[in-house]
Write a structure and sequence with these properties.
Elements (H helix, E strand, L loop, with lengths): L2 H12 L12 H20 L1 H5 L8 H26 L5 H9 L16 H19 L8 H29 L3 H20 L11 H6 L7 H19 L9 E3 L4 E3 L5 H10 L4 H14 L1 H19 L1
Antiparallel strand pairs: 1-2
Helix pairs in contact: 2-4, 4-7, 6-7, 6-8, 6-10
The chain binds acetyl coenzyme *A.
Organism: Kaustia mangrovi
EC number: 1.14.13.149
Pfam families: PaaA_PaaC
């Protein structure tokens, strides 16, 4: 790729023009987008499992209806995102195959187990809260199909975050046992939620280039900081304690300082699939096999319709 082309492309980005699928683009831009969008899609699909685990055990009909809707939304997000990735010249089948073979990355957060009902509250509040922090700026991402997909996704994530926080609020206003359950969930989900934003900027291999290409609009550390600043007062309102002895308000920067993140845990989750990684992929494979007849029937039906129309 010659310099002039790369420069002209960067100028388009700097003018805030959206890049569309048929536009010429540097190979690296295409590659990093396929990587990020497909990892994002896989995260949504795998993310259905930890919460799906509680659908049959939701404590009331109202809670069950909300949780069902939320898990279905995640499935929908995965499908928009696969469709956005397909505009870059890969097929959904290829991407799904990479996931089923355990070759594709998905968000570290979805390898953790959901041990109690309070975890459903904590996931909505913290995990979807973190997802919103990260995804609202992606609505202004330079690649058109990704940016547009993010608009609806973010509206739905906002509902997910509220339903999670409301579960936490109900538990915190309940019996001492319920409040203890909420605290235990916060204790287990806090640090993994901070890890969702990815490595520190100094370690983020794609960070600088993706900021320049406006795929990312904020760095990993900047988003993590925004999340901490927004979430600590919410924990205080619930009467819960954030499990970080070093957490302190820093007047000068106008934000919180936090203690060190356990990057060994993060790296081990990425490497070995963490606590539930193997189950997540095994369940996904089983779902793929169980659903094969539906795909075959849909393809046969489409073929029949096409033949009829041709007649
Ligand atoms: N879990 C798993 N892998 C991660 C995580 C994480 N939380 N954070 C970073 N990584 C991986 C990156 O994918 C990259 O791996 P690769 O080179 O093998 O592809 C590596 O660690 C280095 O990280 P960065 O250079 O910082 O990568 P990047 O610039 O892509 O930033 C980020 C990572 C912030 C996750 C970015 O890709 C992003 O914004 N993605 C879209 C949002 C998303 O995927 N959210 C998923 C969870 S939210 C949800 O599904 C509800």
């Amino acid at each position: 790729e010659d310099e002039a082309f790369l420069e002209a492309f960067q100028e388009r980005i700097d003018r805030e023009e959206k890049i569309e699928p048929n536009d010429p683009m540097p190979e690296g831009y295409r590659r990093t987008l396929v990587r990020q969008i497909s990892q994002h899609a896989h995260s949504e699909i795998i993310g259905m499992q930890p919460e799906g685990n509680w659908i049959t055990r939701a404590p009331s009909l109202k809670r069950k209806a909300a949780l069902l809707a939320k898990v279905q939304d995640e499935g929908g997000h995965g499908l928009y995102l696969y469709a956005a990735a397909e505009t870059l010249g890969v097929t959904r089948e290829e991407l799904v195959e990479q996931l089923l073979q355990g070759k594709a990355k998905y968000s570290s957060i979805f390898t953790y187990p959901t041990l109690s009902w309070a975890d459903i509250g904590a996931i909505g509040w913290l995990v979807d809260g973190a997802a919103i922090m990260n995804q609202v700026p992606l609505c202004r991402c330079s690649f058109g199909p990704y940016a547009r997909a993010m608009i609806r996704v973010c509206k739905e994530e906002s509902f997910h975050q509220r339903q999670g926080y409301e579960i936490m609020l109900t538990l915190c206003n309940g019996t001492p046992e319920q409040k203890a359950m909420a605290q235990d969930a916060l204790d287990r989900w806090w640090w993994p939620s901070l890890m969702m934003f990815g490595p520190h900027d100094s370690e983020s291999q794609h960070g600088d280039q993706n900021m320049a290409w406006k795929i990312k609009r904020f760095t990993n550390d900047a988003l993590r900081q925004k999340f901490v600043d927004a979430t600590v007062p919410q924990a205080e309102f619930l009467g819960l304690k954030v499990p970080d002895p070093d957490l302190a308000w820093n007047e000068e920067k106008g934000g919180y300082d936090i203690g060190p993140i356990d990057w060994d845990e993060f790296r081990s989750v990425l490497k070995s699939g963490g606590f539930c990684g193997r189950d997540r992929i095994r369940n996904r494979r089983r779902a793929e096999e169980d659903g094969a007849w539906v795909r075959e029937a849909a393809a046969a039906f489409a073929e029949k319709q096409a033949t009829r129309q041709a007649d």
